[in-house]
Design a protein that fits this description.
Elements: H1 5-14, H2 19-34, H3 36-50, H4 71-95, H5 99-106, H6 108-120, H7 128-135, E1 139-142, E2 145-151, H8 154-162, E3 172-177, H9 187-204, E4 212-217, H10 233-238, E5 242-245, H11 253-260, H12 275-285, E6 293-298
Parallel strand pairs: 3-4
Antiparallel strand pairs: 1-2, 2-3, 4-6, 5-6
Helix pairs in contact: 1-2, 2-3, 2-4, 3-4, 11-12
Length: 303
């Protein structure tokens, strides 16, 4: 199910895997295919991953690997995604997804591994569950932002319907995600991504209707306006969205994780090098809390 040594290295490069991790992954590859237990686990995982590929919100439960802790266990999801790559690429071709969009989307596995190294100082996959969306054709990188085919859900669907939109809890929407390691979140970059997304989904998913795009992120916490200038990229990003609903569950680890790389860093030691770092750390040191904001914007250009 895995390509041979040379092809495996090329696949890893195509997926944006950090160069310093490739030699170890290629070296461990034969263990995955030669060991009957590992091969069986790989086959089960790939079958689960690609079953119903393209469906929105399909339940995917990748089986846990009951194996000794170490590099192979931390990196095993890489082999699952590489083995699933032909199915994902076939789905993309069926939909007419441009090769550059496919490549940049699936290269998020490399970003995920970079996040793991930043946090733990060693190779591994930080959040395999997140990458499931990419390899099942649910999420696409379009410029600065990622757009995930999703459904509104009960709370947002009911609220937006009450606001006069022709939507409901089961209506399709596009969840907007802001990937790390991709430069500033400038208004021009966001404008370009939204324009790309409007064209992309109209062409490649014409049977699906998207009235709204949603975003669920600590970046939408309105408290950030107390600390950041009005013309900052984050504040201007917030201004694009209307409030879908408020969340009063504390989420202090969210900004600490995304700004500083490790959600468990002690608050008193958080650096103050940038305006965002000062905002996140100073607010927590003063006894405040951060929350995930939930916003929406019209996606079809109206409103």
């Amino acid at each position: 199910m895995l390509p041979d040594t040379d092809e495996l290295a090329e696949s890893l490069l195509d997926l944006g895997v950090p160069h310093e991790d490739i030699n170890d992954l290629v070296r461990m590859g034969p263990r995955v295919t030669d060991d009957p237990e590992l091969r069986h686990h790989l086959e089960r995982s790939v079958d689960e991953l690609v079953r119903g590929i393209g469906q929105v919100g399909g339940a995917v439960d990748l089986p846990d690997l009951d194996w000794a802790s170490g590099p192979l266990r931390r990196c095993f999801p890489v082999y699952v995604f590489v083995a699933a790559l032909p199915s994902t690429r076939a789905y993309h071709r069926e939909r007419g997804i441009p090769a550059d969009v496919s490549r940049r989307t699936l290269a998020d596995i490399g970003r995920n591994m970079a996040v793991h190294r930043r946090r733990h100082g060693r190779t591994g996959v930080q959040a395999p569950w997140w990458l499931v969306h990419h390899f099942r054709g649910e999420l696409y990188q379009l410029g600065r932002l990622q757009f995930e085919r999703a459904r509104l859900g009960q709370r947002a669907g009911t609220r937006l319907a009450a606001a006069g939109l022709d939507v409901g809890p089961d209506s399709g929407c596009l969840n907007v995600h802001i990937p790390d390691f991709y430069g500033p979140l400038s208004p021009a970059a966001v404008d370009r991504s939204l324009a790309l997304a409007r064209e992309f989904f109209a062409v490649h998913f014409p049977q699906e209707r998207y009235e709204v795009a949603t975003c669920h992120s600590w970046l939408l916490d309105p408290q950030l306006r107390k600390y950041l200038p009005e013309d900052s990229n984050i504040v201007r990003f917030q201004e694009r969205f209307r409030v879908a609903h408020e969340d009063r569950e504390q989420a202090d680890s969210e900004p600490v994780q995304f700004v500083f790389g490790d959600p468990e860093l002690p608050v008193e030691s958080l650096p103050r090098r940038t305006a965002v770092e000062r905002a996140v750390g100073d607010h927590l040191r003063a006894g405040g809390h951060w929350f995930v904001g939930h916003g929406w914007l019209p996606f079809d250009g109206r409103g």
